[in-house]
Amino acid sequence: MKSANGRKIILRYLQAHNKDYTRLSKKLSYLLRHGAIKEGLSIKADGFVPVDQLLSKNLHGCTLEDIKKVVETNDKKRFVLRENNGTWEIKATQGHSINEINNLSLKPLDRVDFDIIHGTYYRNWENIKLKGLSCMRRNHIHFSKGLDFTCGLRKSADVYIYIDFEKAKRDGLKFFESENKIILCAGNDKGIIERKYFLKVYSKNGKILNLY
Questions:
Q1: pTM of the predicted model, to two decimals?
Q2: How far apart are CA 152 and CA 180, in angstroms?
Q3: Where in the chain is the domain with CATH 1.10.10.970?
Q4: DSSP state of 208
Q5: 10 Å Cβ neighbour count for 113?
Q6: pLDDT for 182
Q7: Which residue ranges in the chain fall short of pLDDT 70?
Q8: Strands 133-134, 192-193: parallel, antiparallel or unpaired by DSSP?
Q9: What is the DSSP letter of 38?
Q10: Does CATH place domain 4-92 in 3.40.47.10?
C-alpha cells in the first residue's frame, strides 16, 4: 500500500507529464456510478466493468496504466481494479445510482463504536429538517465514521448530522460499510432517513442546531 507521501510524489509526476488524471477520475466516477448502462457498458451486479470496454468506448487516448495510476493515487479509494481470468475490471466502491448494481462488497453493521455523520450545508438544512435525509438519485445515503474528512465527509460541509444508529436499527433501517470505509444506508422504502433518527446536529463552528 502506498503511503500518503508516496501518492503525492506520483501525483506530482503525473502532473508534470501533462496527464489530466483529475478529469479521468471524474469520468470514471460518472461511468461506474451512474452512466454505464446509458453508455452501453457491460456492468455486473457487483459494479465491475471491463476496462477494455471503457478504453474503447469512452476513454479514447487513455490506457490501462492511466487507470491503474488513478486507482492507486485516489486518496479516498473510490475505485477497485482487479484482474479476473485475464481481463482487467474496475468498479466504484460506492455512490451508485444504477439499480442493477445490488451485489457490492458491503459489510452489514450490527453495532458501531463510532459516530455516524452526514455532512451537508446550511442551505439544505431547513429542507432536511422538514423532509429528512434522502438518497436523491443514488442507491444509498452516505455517512462518515466520525468527523473523517478523508473518507465520507466533504471538507466544505458546514452542517454535521449525527444519526441515532440504535434507534434506526430497531426500526429496520440497515447500515453497511463500503470497501473504502464509507457508511451507507438506503433509508426507508421511500429512500428517506427521517428526522426522528437524527441524534444531534452541529454547525461547523460547533453550534448546536435545533431539530424542531
A1: 0.80
A2: 9
A3: 4-92
A4: B
A5: 5
A6: 93
A7: 1-19
A8: antiparallel
A9: T
A10: no
